[in-house]
Predict the 3D structure of the following.
Amino acid sequence: MVARLGFDQLGLPTGKRARLRRILYQQGLRNGTTLFLPYDQGLEHGPRDFFANETATDPRYIVRLAIEGGFNGIAIQIGLAEKFYWEYAGEVPLILKLNGKTDIPDDAAPLSPLNATVEEAVALGADAVGYTLYVGTPAQAADFEQFRVVRADAVRLGMPLIVWAYPRGAAITAKGGTDSFYAVDYAARAASELGADMIKVNFPRPQKRSGVRAEYDALFSDEEAIGAVVRSANRSLLLVSGGEKAGDEAMLSKARLTMEAGGTGLIFGRNVWQRSHLEAMRFVSALRAVLAEHPAPERSFGVDQAPAVTVPDSQFVPVD
Amino acid sequence: MVARLGFDQLGLPTGKRARLRRILYQQGLRNGTTLFLPYDQGLEHGPRDFFANETATDPRYIVRLAIEGGFNGIAIQIGLAEKFYWEYAGEVPLILKLNGKTDIPDDAAPLSPLNATVEEAVALGADAVGYTLYVGTPAQAADFEQFRVVRADAVRLGMPLIVWAYPRGAAITAKGGTDSFYAVDYAARAASELGADMIKVNFPRPQKRSGVRAEYDALFSDEEAIGAVVRSANRSLLLVSGGEKAGDEAMLSKARLTMEAGGTGLIFGRNVWQRSHLEAMRFVSALRAVLAEHPAPERSFGVDQAPAVTVPDSQFVPVD
Amino acid sequence: MVARLGFDQLGLPTGKRARLRRILYQQGLRNGTTLFLPYDQGLEHGPRDFFANETATDPRYIVRLAIEGGFNGIAIQIGLAEKFYWEYAGEVPLILKLNGKTDIPDDAAPLSPLNATVEEAVALGADAVGYTLYVGTPAQAADFEQFRVVRADAVRLGMPLIVWAYPRGAAITAKGGTDSFYAVDYAARAASELGADMIKVNFPRPQKRSGVRAEYDALFSDEEAIGAVVRSANRSLLLVSGGEKAGDEAMLSKARLTMEAGGTGLIFGRNVWQRSHLEAMRFVSALRAVLAEHPAPERSFGVDQAPAVTVPDSQFVPVD
Amino acid sequence: MVARLGFDQLGLPTGKRARLRRILYQQGLRNGTTLFLPYDQGLEHGPRDFFANETATDPRYIVRLAIEGGFNGIAIQIGLAEKFYWEYAGEVPLILKLNGKTDIPDDAAPLSPLNATVEEAVALGADAVGYTLYVGTPAQAADFEQFRVVRADAVRLGMPLIVWAYPRGAAITAKGGTDSFYAVDYAARAASELGADMIKVNFPRPQKRSGVRAEYDALFSDEEAIGAVVRSANRSLLLVSGGEKAGDEAMLSKARLTMEAGGTGLIFGRNVWQRSHLEAMRFVSALRAVLAEHPAPERSFGVDQAPAVTVPDSQFVPVD
Amino acid sequence: MVARLGFDQLGLPTGKRARLRRILYQQGLRNGTTLFLPYDQGLEHGPRDFFANETATDPRYIVRLAIEGGFNGIAIQIGLAEKFYWEYAGEVPLILKLNGKTDIPDDAAPLSPLNATVEEAVALGADAVGYTLYVGTPAQAADFEQFRVVRADAVRLGMPLIVWAYPRGAAITAKGGTDSFYAVDYAARAASELGADMIKVNFPRPQKRSGVRAEYDALFSDEEAIGAVVRSANRSLLLVSGGEKAGDEAMLSKARLTMEAGGTGLIFGRNVWQRSHLEAMRFVSALRAVLAEHPAPERSFGVDQAPAVTVPDSQFVPVD
């Protein structure tokens, strides 16, 4: 199991620390891990995602689910935040999802437009903001420009920034698809270099090798893949998403591998609310059990918590 | 019949409450329902819409029609608002339609440009603003960006925001058309997640199943469809539009189904002014009769008015 | 002959009134009609328009022509306004044409870019600004956005706004051409709904029926067509342009029909300056004779000057 | 020979007068003519332009050449201005070329992006700014928009604005090419209407008639062509550029025709620095000899200096 | 060997001098040469670049490598600068790379979007900023516009500006490729004219002659090519990059030729960190040995340090 950096070694400015500490150490398991509830699928996919459980159409139900399930935060769009969060404000951290789009038009050059700003997140009492970055999209210039402003605002206002790092677009499709080890690894790195505090990825599938870069067209285990992705993210904390509803054991297995590799947490939506309330609570309990085994230190007490893959200090000598 | 949320449960800030209360409870039937008169067809379709009744070419006639017909508001573009509303200012609420376009160029990737701002609506004494969101348009990134500014201005200035949630564009055409249950339901949800206070949709046609998403390719009644749309809109109040002039009984039937499903009101233009003045007044009386049967409570007096589709409170228990 | 609205019934704010009164009642015939001299063809078509009369190449000649001919204003681009209007500043009202383009590149999706601002018009002492709106252009979103800023600036600074409402672009070509009754009527209405104070159109040709909307594919006289266009413009005063140089009698006939239908005036350029000075003066005298027969009242002295096409007041009764 | 306007008849505001007077009457021949040295070919064409004379690679050499050759100004991009002009600041007027591009990508819809601003020109002590306007480019809307800001800044800061009026793009190619009489004449006029103080054109070639507008498809002499171009430019002073290096006598002939037609000066780069220093000086002397014969009056002492092509004052009589 | 300009002859304003002096004379060899370590390949190429040496995935390792290797600066993106530079702030100069992109989408019209601003570089204590300019890209208008703002901010804030001058895009591919003498020479000149303080190029390959401009389709030695590139850059200091990892001797040879031609330094990334720590240190030592032989004077003590390719002062005489 990988050693984790102390929370005080992440290079975060004061406001980001205050808000992220609230999420990581004053909410949920309070052990430095996270379980987030995303609820923007009504925009991203449409209400069809609620057909499996009509109750989930109601944002009020979802907010209460996040509270009762001990989630570390709920990620919603501004419209729902304005109309539904006031009732439970402060009971569960709000992650304002800043951009989003429908899945109706063609997706060859996707760009997720801004629907809200970091300042609006501050005004609503949010503890983090979310941004979907379509890594590899032909529209990447516009995407990066848009992200830059969000990142700068987040720095200015001390707001933790969670990046949905999603490989997308025609070139990704041609080069192995959205969840290859290559694509996910690149997405995590790009988000890290661009300034994410947390990075949400799909679990990488190293067996998807057709079309990927030569370096990734080799035999990698799931453990190796998720481990590399965590290292690519570095001091940007890694979250793995559930994606479409799948078998519970498969989900829990991904969760375990992620946490063992040094990941910080999980962000599961449809796998939670596309079932009855009681089943949802049972599944959440299982996820929490995984997280409970992987605490991250809040303080490093002076210990040098550099990542494991370094050269021994003794080898660092000035050149002549 | 569906229980309605109290006006005080909608999560509205003060200025929006003041203006929306004026529309819902101090105008027209004063019972929390609405009947709006839209009059931007001269821009959207051209003067051909006035050929059925030349008198309707004259905006002055329309404003007086709205006043005498007891409408809750009239929706017009800035040019007409500037030149015609001064004479009757305050006699009927003004809904300034902020964007709009002609139907002349190709409509595969529609975008309705801004012709006015929320600040100009304030300056003209408007009680609400209207925005056409083309849900599913290939130009959705530009549309959402434009909408974001309008929404933020509306929040800042306390101005209620009514979204014309219209599925449009090549992908919508390919996926079942503009008035399928799938398209209308998605449009209502998207507008809700993006921050509409009221949402105008066309009445969904569940029988249009060719090309829609699998979840919608099933047998749904009109009641089920409009009920789902109202739930997708949630605390964004739902309006149904009349669209092209059609048979009165068909129109009244849609109106009844909408109100029974929990909708807030109607927005009928061509069906009203594409006929003689006396016939228009008769039809308006019939619409008002429907609305009169579906009042919405102005205050909930502490009663928890959560939507019906929730899990019993007793089932909400913290996970272990 | 159609009754005209009083100048005080147009819904104009103070600054626009002051400047427009100067144009309509303190210049030229001083009777509420207008004769404008447009001189931006050097940009729009190139110097070839001056080959018929080389003297017209010289902007100084044109300014003097406008003064001596008793025109109500001269419409020029900023470059000529800066270099030539100072000499005669105040002798004839300046209409600063704010946008314009060459006719060299392909015109399938035309957009006329801004070359000057309303503030610059104020600085130059202009009494109005001009804007070319290409109604129906595939670039309409950009056109409307650009226009919105001009309109808002014009309102803010009390500057009358004259819209060159020109149907243009591939869709217009496909739907009957730029001067069909359908196209001109739509253009007038669009400009009116978007906020024009005056609207310049080409004289509609109702006999052009191929490709137009069904409502317009019928037998209309010239009188009916121009009458409908004036009504579509409503309180935005209608001007008819001369277009390419044509026979004098045909021009005068259009002028008469326009004024009889309730139009406010004429804007003739090439028909004036593409001939010798003496011939130009003779033609101008003939145009002025037409205008002299159609004065518009400066004040309505309390008389209700509502347009003719209304329902009798007695029929406006509240619905039950 | 054509009579010239006095410098005080150009309609220039104070700051532009001060700077332009420095260029025209306090530099070089001090007689109201100009000889400019353009040196942005390293960007526009690449260093290949320096292969004929490697010394010309060095901007320091060029600045000294401009000083010693008695040029009225040197036109360079901001990078060279920042690194090389400080050493000789004030010894020769600086014309900061504000936009520019490489000739590498396809040129069907050219646009020359801004590389510096008028404010930066002021900060560097420039006496004029240069802007390349691609008249007829399919990108004209963007070009004009960009130019508008430059023009407005130049007015605000009293900075003379020299426009490189270059017909370019696919439509120009299809309509007779970049140096036809038609194209050059149109370019001069467009720049004049848009607000240039000086206009740089290539010498028109009236014999290029294939594809041009009908009016230009006739027999014109070089004298007639350049004369028309000067008139199209009007109070915007006309400069003729040398273009690619050509025979000296041909160059001098163009210079003579330009000055005889009323042009203000020459802007010669490659024809000067693509040869040895001594040869360059000899050629410059010959050019200066031409300019010396065509002085323009600094003051008109009350004389009406209107252009020649006017109607006698006696003919300007008010219409009845 | 070429004489070098003194540091005080570069035309730099105060703030740029202070920061650049720190890089050139107070860091590394302190002799006016530079060895930079670029580390944005994780974004530009993805984590695959780290497969040769997994340790290099860790930004903390790289920062320490730069310090221990005596580099003059490390070039990283904002995300890594924020999370990793705080620990070693001030120990090695930070070059904040302001733009960057992934290599996933098609590269026919590349544009490297801004990910950070010069102000953010100031806030992080950077001593220089880096910008990738894709010389020849069909997107050059957008690239130049974006660069202009960066350059202006860098001037305003006294921040040295290093341009990655990379020929790229479909036209470059068609005209001889990205590393031809033609392309590299043009790129250096363009960056210089646009305002770079330092220019990073790939070593030119004069043998690549197919498709290049005629002037470059001749026999040039490597010495001639790099010499011309240094002259094209002029007072913008030239850096040569290592590019993909290649044989050490080939790399060292390029380094020597560059320095002998008057270049200022080297910027080597993959050739350094795609090997073990000890091997990296050995290679760095060899590079430093080359640089040590080519010091550049910090002060010129009044000596005229004009470039060599000038005309003797005696030949500069005023024309008659």
